[in-house]
């Protein structure tokens, strides 16, 4: 960890930045301060506003309100290129350089040294070689960039930015596709840049890396600034609490209702179930009338676990049994045949079929389960659709309306209806309340509990810890694509989940090799 | 008013067809005349139905493929193959064998396309381009580059005969339309195809075997194309591998698009695809009847297609509504 | 092929040129387009017979409709040191380089069936082709004679729009119509040289012309379209060959069957025997140095029911049509 002694002068100051997309307020009066020579982590869960902040600062999106000062002078770039010219460079996870051009050409793209109008290739190569040597990168710069690893490409992109006299360098998830050794190389480069007085913004979801290299941390949540701390003074659990939100005291009250419930017998059991490089093998038993929550940070393996359970990904280890009988879940079809249902996180791309009607969307899974030869008659379809429209209070109550025209909350209810119509034994809900307004939010939570009382087994993923605590009988905590802890009964509360997520264990290293 | 009318499903197509028939009547006064000739209805209207039969059959398969967000460029080549097979076998082995072999070949072609698209995940336009190019070569190998003629009367009947006065090709199309409609709408296939085309990822996660769906529609498309090929060969009592079905894949795609099925998949209509095929043929026949020099054929065709597609475009309908309001 | 072999081959050619060669020793390479049509197949088989008749060794290379294959074949013929090269060019341009190579190797080239761009005029010995304007005129003259001054409305089935053969066959026919006031082309549409289109277009002609009552004759740019048109006439209850006269071009076997059945009247032959005149020219050139004219026009022979069509059908059928 770098010593973050006295806070240097502010290099980049963002004050009161706001940005809305339609009715969605992506950023609300966010402040952000970057000092010269520091490495500053920008953290937050999905939808916290990290990307929006970067794009609003670098002129990719126009901002609604707020000012940005660089070295004391106000800047308002209108495009990413203008931002680079002003001294703010961004390197994204997918390096936006040209794979088929040489390293040298990429670094000098658009500003090649010329003489009499001709590009001086040799001169360019000499300069690029020297430039990369500063980053301890000794490669043949005449080779196409695409021939080198992602790490080298990242360093080349950083070198290009620095060479264009960047004073602020923003790295958006640069380590997501790097192995441990490549991360080390990149970190060495970042440290070297910081020493030169460049301010580095580091966006990541690897908390270990944050504690390894960052001087300071800014956390965003739901488009708002949660706070800014020095890394040395911020315990890991406190950081996670900042990211996931809500104070501990708020959450305990809701638990009472779930205590009385009696869990039934095990209906689905997964043993040593896993897939290399996807999710480490886990044991999971799901009982009738029980809600199991999956908690963890973004990228911890929650959705991956759900997809494995539902057969959307094939497990390469372990076994699954339903009511004691071994089953093979090779595809969603198999899972549906065994009475599973799955409401995915990405409603638009993985859930709804936008141009089909509410009725058709509701009967789809049931029809798939019955097979081609047993079509539901129109009367049956109408009956099913109307029953669920009434039961779940889907609005507007028009079965013939294309689902794409409904609000997010009502779309989610239709997807729930799709699975409830199949009379499932197990329902997997991935972020069932995401992007849904407050009213529908409460309704869906109420529904989850009712379903459970009816003897359904539920596996629910949510980033909202207080929500997960509200309805879960058990909570499984994931970290680095591994199931690391399981909380049951009295132990299910937000602080225990936070502790489990934060616990710096050996799990991270294992997952890296998986 | 105009907007609402044009957005009623199928109305734009029906209006377009009626308008083209009216124009046909204008350029050729005897257009609607009908009489019996050798036990067969005779007249320009019958020509439209009869000549439109191959494209209608192709469109019947194509509409399902397009509904899954695919496309089949090989149908013209499959026509050439099946025609060549039927013509080569008919005189020696009789119609049942010739027909079975020809349709079997179409089935295989469809399986091949479906395998490339559904199992190997190759883009449909590329996957079917392979057979589009190679298929005609296969047909030429079968016919050795010449027109293989036959005299087997039952095969000739398929192209030139009549059932209760209605030309056999038209009867075959109606039969296939009924069968396809029964299979697709009588079972859950139609819904599952529309779901697959609308959003394949979501459909897969809803438990639909999307691969099987896609394989099935290409097989059906191959079968329809093979039948169209047999009819085209029967019509001229010979298999012309160089020309049979040449560019008809484009007419079939056009028929489907005119019928209002989006190339982006999803909702489809068999009946409107048939109307699309009729629109194309009514236009072709009208051009032939008009007596204009053939240099104008393609120009007229392009203009008519443009107008028909504009009629269906929601934006155009909106613009029309706005104009209508402005006038009031 | 090594350069040494090439040298030897050239020497061999030089030798054969120096010593008046006898026919039996001639070897000719023939770069054929491919099997694009029945006529093409017939041309290939007739070429073989004509060569055998003259005791010439004919090496045929099938280019599968690709110019690059034809160029390869010609280079290979040059390397083998053949005595002459026959070329049925798939396209009209792009031959200059390879024909120059042949010229440098002193191998005479004869074009069969199709001509090339004028820039290559000096690079080949002669071209054996038919005159498609003349073909149209022969068809027209037969019709003029057949109706003998009576008023006659003609419908025309054109070849593919823009194809030079179609343009020329129309031009030749029109020249005769211009001279005969009793002949009038009332309808003209393209049938794309195919049976299916010929039939479809004829159906519309019949309907547009009072059920065929106003049509006295059909002229089709090729026999295939006519075969389709004959079917259309029969289906309309008309008697082709009697109610409506027919004349078309190419003389493929199926039209003889129709003539024999009395359903067609006349056809103008596009002879598949291009190799015969070409071989004669080459043999004279080799033996006595006789330089043939730059263009050898093949005969455009007219066939009618008087020419024993059944017999011609039988003999033609064996040619690979």
Describe this structure in words.
The complex is a heterotrimer of chains A (514), B (328) and C (321). With 514 residues, chain A is an alpha/beta fold. Chain A folds into three domains: 10-245, Rossmann fold; 251-339 and 424-513, Rossmann fold (3-Layer(aba) Sandwich); 350-423, no CATH class. Helix content of chain A is 35%, strand content 25%. Chain B is mostly helical and 328 residues long. Chain B has a domain at 41-267. In chain B, the strands form three sheets. Chain B has a two-stranded antiparallel ribbon. In chain B, strands 3-6 form a two-stranded antiparallel ribbon. In chain B, strands 4-5 form a two-stranded antiparallel sheet. In chain B, a hairpin with a 2-residue loop joins strand 1 (35-37) and strand 2 (40-42). Chain C has two domains: 3-129 and 272-290, 3-Layer(aba) Sandwich (Rossmann fold), CATH 3.40.50.2300; 132-270 and 305-317, 3-Layer(aba) Sandwich (Rossmann fold). Chain C has helices at residues 3-18, 38-53, 67-80, 96-104, 132-147, 164-179, 195-208, 223-235, 253-260, 275-288, 309-317, and strands at residues 27-32, 57-62, 84-87, 109-112, 126-129, 152-158, 183-190, 217-220, 245-250, 266-269, 295-297, 302-304. Chain C has a six-stranded parallel beta sheet, with helices on both faces. The B-C interface holds B 28, 30-31, 33, 37-38, 40, 42-44, 47, 51, 140, 144-147, 149, 160, 232, 235-238, 240, 242-244, 285, 288-289, 291, 293-295, 297 and C 34-38, 40-41, 158, 161, 187-190, 192-197, 199-201, 203-205, 207-208, 210, 224, 227-228, 231, 235-237, 254, 320-321.
Q: Which blocks of ≥5 consecutive residues of chain B have pLDDT under 50?
A: none
Strand % of chain A is 25-35%
- Rg of Cα set of chain B: 20 Å
Count of discrete alpha- or pi-helical segments spanning 4 or more residues of chain B:
15
Calculate the mean pLDDT score of chain A and round it: 85
**From N to C, what is the helix and strand string of chain B?**
HHEEHHHHEHEEHHHHEHHHH
Domain Periplasmic binding protein (chain C): 30-285
Main location (chain C): other
Family (chain C): Belongs to the bacterial solute-binding protein 2 family.
Subcellular location (chain C): Cell envelope
């Amino acid at each position: 960890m770098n010593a973050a002694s006295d806070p240097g002068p502010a290099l980049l100051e963002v004050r009161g930045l706001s940005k809305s997309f339609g009715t969605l307020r992506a950023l609300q009066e966010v402040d952000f301060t970057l000092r010269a020579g520091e490495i500053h982590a920008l953290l937050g869960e999905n939808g916290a506003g990290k990307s929006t902040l970067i794009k609003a600062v670098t002129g990719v999106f126009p901002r609604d309100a707020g000012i940005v000062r660089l070295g004391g002078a106000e800047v308002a770039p209108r495009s990413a290129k203008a931002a680079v010219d002003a001294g703010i460079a961004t390197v994204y996870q997918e390096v936006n350089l040209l794979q088929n051009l040489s390293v040298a050409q990429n670094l000098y793209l658009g500003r090649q040294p010329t003489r009499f109008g001709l590009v001086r290739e040799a001169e360019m190569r000499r300069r690029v070689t020297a430039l990369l040597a500063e980053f301890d990168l000794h490669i043949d710069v005449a080779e196409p960039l695409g021939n080198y690893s992602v790490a080298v490409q990242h360093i080349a992109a950083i070198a290009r930015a620095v060479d264009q006299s960047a004073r602020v360098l923003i790295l958006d998830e640069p380590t997501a596709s790097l192995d441990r050794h490549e991360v080390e190389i990149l970190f060495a480069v970042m440290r070297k840049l910081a020493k030169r007085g460049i301010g580095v913004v580091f966006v990541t979801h690897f908390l270990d890396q944050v504690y390894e290299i960052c001087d300071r941390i800014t956390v965003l949540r739901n488009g708002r600034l949660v706070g800014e701390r020095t890394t040395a003074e911020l315990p890991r659990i406190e950081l996670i609490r900042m990211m996931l939100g809500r104070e501990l005291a708020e959450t305990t009250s809701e638990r009472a209702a779930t205590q009385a419930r009696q869990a039934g017998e095990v209906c689905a059991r997964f043993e040593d179930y896993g897939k290399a490089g996807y999710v480490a093998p886990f044991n999971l038993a799901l009982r009738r009338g029980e809600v199991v929550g999956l908690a963890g940070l973004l990228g911890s393996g929650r959705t991956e676990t759900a997809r494995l359970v539902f057969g959307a990904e094939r497990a390469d280890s372990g076994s699954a049994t339903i009511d004691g009988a071994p089953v093979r879940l090779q595809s969603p079809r198999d899972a549906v045949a065994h009475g599973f249902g799955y409401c995915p996180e990405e409603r638009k791309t993985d859930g709804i079929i936008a141009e089909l009607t509410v009725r058709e969307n509701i009967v789809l899974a049931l029809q798939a389960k019955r097979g081609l030869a047993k079509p539901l008659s129109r009367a049956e379809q109408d009956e099913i659709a109307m029953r669920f429209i009434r039961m779940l209070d889907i609005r507007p109550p028009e079965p013939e309306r294309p689902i794409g025209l409904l609000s997010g909350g009502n779309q989610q209810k239709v997807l729930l209806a799709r699975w409830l119509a199949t009379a499932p034994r197990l329902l997997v809900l991935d972020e069932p309340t995401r992007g849904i307004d407050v009213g529908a939010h409460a309704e869906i939570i109420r529904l989850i509990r009712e379903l459970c009382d009816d003897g359904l087994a539920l596996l629910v993923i949510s980033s909202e810890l207080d929500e997960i605590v509200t309805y879960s009988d058990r909570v499984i905590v994931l970290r680095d694509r591994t199931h690391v802890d399981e909380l049951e009964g009295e132990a299910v509360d937000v602080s225990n989940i936070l502790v489990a997520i934060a616990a710096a264990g050996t799990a991270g290293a294992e997952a890296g090799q998986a | 008013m105009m907007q609402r009318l044009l957005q009623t499903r199928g109305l734009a197509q029906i209006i377009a067809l009626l308008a083209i028939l009216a124009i046909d009547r204008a350029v050729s006064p005897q257009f609607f005349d009908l009489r019996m000739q050798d036990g067969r209805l005779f007249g320009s209207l019958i020509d439209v139905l009869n000549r439109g039969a191959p494209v209608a059959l192709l469109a019947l398969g194509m509409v399902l493929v397009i509904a899954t967000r695919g496309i089949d460029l090989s149908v013209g080549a499959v026509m050439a193959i099946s025609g060549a097979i039927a013509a080569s076998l008919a005189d020696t082995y009789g119609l049942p064998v010739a027909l079975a072999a020809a349709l079997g070949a179409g089935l295989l072609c469809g399986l091949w396309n479906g395998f490339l698209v559904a199992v190997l995940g190759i883009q449909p336009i590329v996957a079917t381009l392979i057979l589009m190019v190679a298929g005609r070569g296969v047909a030429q190998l079968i016919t050795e580059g010449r027109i293989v003629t036959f005299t087997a009367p039952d095969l000739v009947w398929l192209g030139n005969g009549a059932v209760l006065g209605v030309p056999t090709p038209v009867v075959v199309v109606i039969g296939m339309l009924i069968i396809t409609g029964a299979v697709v709408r009588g079972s859950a296939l139609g819904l599952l195809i529309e779901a697959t085309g609308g959003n394949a990822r979501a459909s897969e996660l809803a438990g639909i075997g999307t691969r099987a769906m896609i394989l099935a529609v290409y097989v059906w498309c191959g079968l329809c194309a093979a039948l169209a090929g047999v009819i085209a060969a029967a019509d001229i009592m010979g298999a012309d591998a160089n020309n049979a079905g040449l560019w008809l894949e484009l007419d079939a795609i056009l028929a489907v698009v005119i019928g209002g099925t989006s190339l982006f998949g999803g909702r489809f209509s068999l009946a409107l695809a048939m109307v699309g095929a009729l629109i194309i043929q009514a236009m072709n026949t009208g051009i032939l009847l008009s007596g204009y020099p053939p240099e104008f054929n393609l120009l007229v065709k392009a203009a008519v297609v443009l107008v028909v597609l504009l009629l269906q475009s929601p934006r155009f309908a909106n613009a029309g509504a706005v104009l209508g309001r402005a006038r009031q | 092929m090594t350069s040494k072999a090439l040298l030897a081959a050239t020497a061999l050619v030089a030798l054969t040129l120096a010593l008046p060669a006898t026919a039996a020793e001639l070897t000719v390479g023939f770069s054929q387009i491919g099997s694009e049509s029945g006529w093409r197949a017939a041309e290939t088989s007739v070429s073989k017979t004509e060569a055998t008749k003259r005791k010439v060794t004919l090496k045929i290379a099938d280019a599968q409709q690709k110019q690059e294959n034809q160029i390869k074949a010609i280079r290979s013929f040059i390397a083998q040191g053949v005595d002459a090269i026959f070329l049925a060019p798939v396209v009209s341009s792009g031959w200059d380089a390879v024909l120059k190579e042949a010229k440098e190797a002193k191998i005479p080239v004869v074009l069969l069936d199709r001509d090339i761009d004028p820039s290559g005029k000096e690079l080949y010995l002669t071209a054996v082709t038919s005159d498609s304007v003349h073909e149209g005129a022969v068809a027209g003259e037969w019709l003029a004679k057949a109706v003998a001054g009576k008023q006659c409305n003609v419908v025309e089935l054109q070849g593919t729009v823009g194809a030079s053969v179609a343009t020329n066959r129309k031009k030749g026919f029109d020249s005769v119509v211009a001279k005969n006031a009793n002949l009038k082309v009332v309808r003209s549409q393209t049938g794309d040289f195919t049976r299916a289109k010929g039939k479809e277009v004829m159906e519309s002609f019949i309907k547009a012309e009072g059920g065929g009552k106003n049509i006295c004759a059909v002229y089709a740019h090729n026999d295939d379209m006519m075969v389709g048109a004959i079917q259309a006439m029969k289906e309309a209850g008309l008697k082709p060959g009697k109610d409506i006269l027919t004349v078309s071009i190419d003389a493929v076997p199926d039209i003889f069957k129709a003539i024999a059945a009395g359903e067609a009247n006349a056809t103008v032959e596009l002879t598949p025997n291009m190799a015969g005149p070409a071989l004669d020219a080459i043999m004279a050139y080799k033996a006595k140095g006789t330089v043939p004219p730059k263009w050898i026009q093949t005969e455009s022979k007219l066939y009618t029911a008087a020419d024993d069509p059944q017999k011609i059908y039988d003999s033609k059928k064996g040619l690979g049509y």
